[in-house]
Structure prediction request, 975 residues.
Amino acid sequence: MPNVKVTLDGIQYEVDNKKTIIEAARENGVSIPHFCYHEKLSVSGNCRMCLVEVEKMPKLAIACMTQVADGMVVHTRNERVINAREAVMEFILINHPLDCPICDEAGECKLQDYSYKYSTGFSRFVEDKVHKPKRVEIGPRVMLDTERCIMCSRCIRFCDEIAGVHQLEFTQRGDRTELTTFPGEKLDNPYSMNVVDICPVGALTNKDFRFKSRVWEMSFTESVCTGCARGCNIEIGVRNNEILRLNPRKNDDVNSVWMCDHGRMDTWKNVNADTRIKSPKIRKDGVLVEVGWDEAIAKVASELKSFNRSEIAVLGSAMASNEDNYIFAKFAKEVLGTRNIDFARHHVGADDNVLIRADKTPNASGAEEVGVAPHDGGMSFEQIISAIKAGKIKALYSLEDDLATIPGVAEALDQLEFFAVHATNHCKTTEHADVILAASTYAEKNGTWTNFQHRVQRIRPAVTTLEQDRALDNFKMSRWDKFAAHNDKWGKGPRRDSRPSWKIVASVAGALGAKFKYNNADDVFNEICQKVESFKGLSYLKVGMKGAVLKKQTVVA
Amino acid sequence: MEKFILPDIPNLHNIDVYEQHGGYQALRKALQMKPDEVIDEVKKSGLRGRGGACFPTGLKWSFMPKGNDKAKYLCVNGDESEPGTFKDRQIFEFNPHVMIEGIIIGCYAMGIPTAYIYIRGEYRKWIKMVDQALADAYAKGYIGENILGSGFSTNVYTHSGAGAYICGEESALMNSIEGERGYPRVKPPFPAQKGVFGMPTTINNVETMSNVPLIINKGAEWYSKIGVAKHPGPILVGISGHVNKPGVYEVPTGVTLLTLINEYAGGVPNGKKIKAVIPGGSSTMILRGENLEGICMDADSLKAAGSSVGTAGLMVMDEDTDLVRVLSRISHFYHHESCGQCTPCREGTGWLEKMLHRFEHYEARTEDIDMLENVANHIEGNTICALGDAAAWPVQSFVRRFRDEFEKRVKQENTVAA
Prediction:
């Protein structure tokens, strides 16, 4: 790629000649303010916020559209540029409702931030503002306030270029311009909520999240979505120990900067839900009753001991982490001595050509990779279910997965003499359980998923359980977490007595006389990296924020 | 002077009449020339675009890539929608074939197989007339396959606008033809690189194309001697406002504005004085009536006078005219017609109109006079297309040249008796 020399604010840089001024500046740490420009969308050049002075050009040029050239001299903050920028800010603000105090975008609003940074802080506008429709349900998951819209067209371009459906358009002209859908249609594509993220103002808001919290009251923890095998990188937004929203996090190798609406909406509500398993439970006289951990672990250990090893099967889970599945496979092999180990697949529909995968679990390839697979003549998932029905398998121990939703499985579970299951929430499967071990959700533990690309990605705890402490365990902290006093109501969200599955399994192993000594998820992962060939050389540090791809071999040591 | 674009010949819109008066001879002549020779002839003639920007037509044609291997387009801009401009309509009605002949010659010169005549939607009647003229020209073999046995083929279509001034902006016009929203495109790329349907395109005004047969018939040398040297040729001047005989007049460039007003248009009714004129359509800068001496209808003269020739839509305002109201109406037009794509024009045009509304109703403050000009300055030069400039120039020039008119409209505070 041929380089050219470009001078930005008096400093010369060498940049790729294909770049625009805004890209070249960004790469070199010079930020040029912009509203309509978005690195993942086509350039529209409409907001005029990125006007810069290019020597030898008579007019100011838009940095988002102007390609660099050798010897180009650009001024991004001289008087002429600052005047133009202040003028653009003034123009944008004259008809923008200054309702930041009740606007959901406040705190993460480009217009608000730029108002502090680039505007004069004073308006000369004494006329009436233009009024347009407010509280428009533009789609099932997105709300529109047309008055707040600054007509940057990012959302229109997103639908056209990324989601691949032309659902949004402007109607009317001039300052009467309105964002809208086609008559009778809705903004309802499977990626519709990304428009909320890229909207630089509070025009498009998340219907599920709006009015729930000011963003500065929340903590944001880097994690990975559990909605399918893609593993979109996300941030979990939490206040009062409750998840309020998910947002996509940039990872060009996985999800660019997007995520689907299913992942954003349907993958975390169970964490806050009343159906949570708040502590371990044992079935006594046909009724599930809450018990302490010691009792539950002892019960599982003694029950498992009472069966012949050929009568026992175990099921890992594509919903559980690499760490959970690894410890579980190790437990099956070294403690129970069973070869009947597998996990259930959950495929729905087909892959689309954007992000969504048919495999609706986050860790199928990881579960397989760390050893959750029938070996040495052991039974597969289907064979295990058949064997239960045939009375050959009498005891089943399963990680968190709602098995009873799979046709034919519920009847099999009823035939078991003993069924222990890890679960985060009450579900169809827990109705059949003899022991429920309260598992922490993906939002409450450290660990890794392995996505369909064999990329190992980190999940991090965003919500605390009873065994954790926000400060001591290095959680992301909100202002509430940091500053709430003991007698304040906030900062006091519910905490459950749940544990990560690897830890529960390790306890069961201990109760059966084995020594599974791990202080934390790091210890487990380090062992995986020693024992599983494809993980060799990895560590949480190497996995980092963007993940790391496994080596090709699938050899379990 | 002899008239070429709109000669006084009855029924010239009839193709037989047009042929009897030498029609389509220029086409026959052009088809005998090499395409580049036609472009050179147009270049040498000095013809400059009649759509307002006065860009040299031959030079524009030479930007088009050579050869016939890929689709290329000619768009003929007949969207004339600017207040004060109504000249193309006369061509559509009285001499459509001179335009069509020019279009075919242009297509031949640039190797273009498809031309669109974009006509403003309100011109329903004239779209029909042009369609009839096109049908007649097809029937005679002037358009279509193998034109006059030359081996050259081209098709010409009319395309109706839908009531948006912005679609007269050349890149918005291209979007409109493509069926997209009439938004101007950011340039570069320029139309000759990437125009309508992403293909090389030339956009010329209706009147510009109507000058081409004349150049081919009589030669560039002859044509270049009409009017002023740097902006030669016949020009259609639409005169409106306070004159006795408003209308479209064909004159050589370089005729003085006062000649146009007093001799062609019969002077100002009731012998009133001229307070102001807008020389080239509502976007051009207003001139004070007492300063008109020596100013001519051509690009250089009007530029020197602090305005521009625009589309030669000359609006005359007598001494009784309320200029604040005039500007308010002009600003209403640009506010109404701003496409809303880019920020300064979308927001600024509305702001200007609202401020002027206050001036109109004696509700303005003294500082609003400077603010008017300042807001206009913030629009000018910072927008995607020239509509922003077109909205800014009238405001700037009215305020600079008629400040007293605005000062009179400032709200008077009641003086309290001591």
